[in-house]
Amino acid sequence: MTRHLRVDGPNHDDRLDHMAQGVIGQPLNRLEGPLKVSGRATYAAEARPGNLAYGVLVQASVPAGKVLDIGDAPGALAVIQDKRMIRHAAQGLDEKGPAAGPARVEYMGQSIALVVAETFEAARHAAQNIAVRYKPETVPVDPESVTPELPPKKQSAAGDLDKAMREATFALDRVWRTPSQTAAAMEPHAAIAEWDGDGVTIRAALQMLSSNRKQMADALGICESKLRLLSPYVGGGFGSKLGINAEAVAAAIAAKQLGRPVMVAMTRQQVFDLAHRRSETRQRIRLACDAEGRLTGIGHDVLVSNLPGSEFTEPVAQATPFTYQAAHRQIVHAVARIHRNCAGSVRAPGEAVGVTAFECAMDELADMAGIDPVELRLKNIPDVEPTTERPFSSHKLAEALREGARRFGWSDRGMPRQRLEGEWFIGMGMAAAVRVNMLMESRAKVTLVQDGHAIVETDMTDIGTGTYTILGQLAAEMLGLPPDRVEVRLGDTRFPPASGSGGSFGAASSGNAVFLACEEIRQRIAKAMGCDERDLTLQDGMARAGNVARSLSELVDGMITGEGHLEPGKTEKSHRQATWGSHWAEVAVNRWTGEVRVRRMMGVFACGRVLNEKTARSQCLGGMSFGIGIALTEAMEHDPRDGHAVSRDLAEYHIPCHADVPPLEVHFLPERDPYVGPLQAKGLGELGICGAGAAVLNAIHNACGVRVRDLPATPDKII
Ligand code: MOS
């Protein structure tokens, strides 16, 4: 039986706070951790079916044009040209894949063919030496060289911002720039496809299996029921595996043609070209306020880029309309159609770079108005969403700011260039954190077996975030079992379709589905006990209600199965849902070299119920580290002649490493959000990155008096 729930109203039930075992929220270690660190968790490229052939993608060496012909590849089994395998990762579900045929090149580095050989080395050799003739075209590759498009749904305005700027006591008008960024998942994209008659099984590195199956079925021109996707372990996604990508489609096409299993694994360099990037941004931010620091005008004009016809637009200013209150407002999202590699969702699309620039602007305004930066923010927090007057589902920005200031010792902050230790200027900075919250339709199946163990099945993925663990914890709590008596099976499209991992929605969405499935099982047990499900306590293999206690093995005949189905409903529209927090950083800036060392960093976050304190904290540690990357190190540089990504490995593209990241402190504010389903949990995955870089940049200014608006803040821009 399936228990459905559409989230149409509030849920104030606090039963999860009073469960018998108290497992939910506990900082349990990741269940699959030992498998991963001992090499027993098999990632996409690690299966070895018999008779496996190896494919290597051939990449375009011109920025645009037609492929006229592709030469022979001596020693290869096949050279496959098929434009279906171009399919960009960022391509939406509604965009139909192209039909078969020779490829058109839209950016330098795009996949145009697949060479298959008996070994990876032979395939790579042939792919690198193959002769390709093009009819090249000259195309724009610089976002500021073209007239941008203005997608109508991405704009918003109220009042008269120009007038507000003219009449303001303090007015700030500045431009920030952030470079293209890459997702930089540890596991490069890979797939192994194997056909059995007209059905195909593809092991791949993917974040969202049920939508990936639709995309893949469309790309291959087969029925979804003929396609099984397996993604039990994924070595990070960060957005780059949200959609299907060239390697998986190519593997399936080649495996069909050759009648044997084919693996296509990208090299690290190929990932930089073929997985989408985060668009570079140009952000003009205008702020107007009165003498007391009350905002009267907010402007956020954004320019991003993508390929012609690509659906995705980095929603840079998506949190701007509801973070602070101002009567006059203008939000513009413009898209330059250029021929750099495809742009798509990467690590908190929108807020990661948008909140970063905006929170730097708030710091500059505070400076200008002579108001403490924390105070300026506190003065401008709205009671309801300013644009729609909808209430917030839960809103702890003010608490996060106050709690952070207290814990970090904000009152010790001095003036720029005031604190010098040896040759290092020391400074403190802060920023608000905000990220939109989403809930996605999700299903799960839970089976309680007579011998006192349970199995959770859903096509949900665990991309390193802790999904196995939190879903196991939830089922253990609801069914009164020790967590090690719950087996969690994920990453297989044969299981009920879940939200997948993305947009910070994975844990809450799939968790609610597991909760509902367990409620269904509890209902059945309650019926056998002759009590109400609410009065049922399950613990240590026993069912108790009032004075009655019976063992589960007696109540469960063989096994009980329950299915849960969660759908977002009216609360999506009735309430503005977001997660909130604050970031704090202390940096040292070398007065002679401009080198920045982050000395300590802290985040205070509110995300509704925390499902596992340890995995939640780890998400925030990762986000904050990436915030250091946005502020100081990360940049995908494009060749100005052809748009090609020239920083294309992890030596050239600097993700902060351990030496760059100081001890990070994370604090969660207790919160239950009634409008986001029975778990009362919002998404947390991406909150830690949103605004983190601004705390670092603002600390740089407080240390040495320099504002860097062209990110990243490398020493040459500070000295
Ligand atoms: Mo995320 S960038 O939606 O994986």
TrEMBL record:
<feature type="domain" description="Aldehyde oxidase/xanthine dehydrogenase a/b hammerhead">
    <location>
        <begin position="38"/>
        <end position="138"/>
    </location>
</feature>
<dbReference type="InterPro" id="IPR008274">
    <property type="entry name" value="AldOxase/xan_DH_MoCoBD1"/>
</dbReference>
<dbReference type="Pfam" id="PF01315">
    <property type="entry name" value="Ald_Xan_dh_C"/>
</dbReference>
<dbReference type="Pfam" id="PF20256">
    <property type="entry name" value="MoCoBD_2"/>
</dbReference>
<dbReference type="InterPro" id="IPR016208">
    <property type="entry name" value="Ald_Oxase/xanthine_DH-like"/>
</dbReference>
<protein>
    <submittedName>
        <fullName>Xanthine dehydrogenase family protein molybdopterin-binding subunit</fullName>
    </submittedName>
</protein>
<feature type="region of interest" description="Disordered">
    <location>
        <begin position="140"/>
        <end position="160"/>
    </location>
</feature>
<dbReference type="Pfam" id="PF02738">
    <property type="entry name" value="MoCoBD_1"/>
</dbReference>
<dbReference type="InterPro" id="IPR036856">
    <property type="entry name" value="Ald_Oxase/Xan_DH_a/b_sf"/>
</dbReference>
<dbReference type="InterPro" id="IPR046867">
    <property type="entry name" value="AldOxase/xan_DH_MoCoBD2"/>
</dbReference>
<dbReference type="InterPro" id="IPR000674">
    <property type="entry name" value="Ald_Oxase/Xan_DH_a/b"/>
</dbReference>
<dbReference type="InterPro" id="IPR037165">
    <property type="entry name" value="AldOxase/xan_DH_Mopterin-bd_sf"/>
</dbReference>
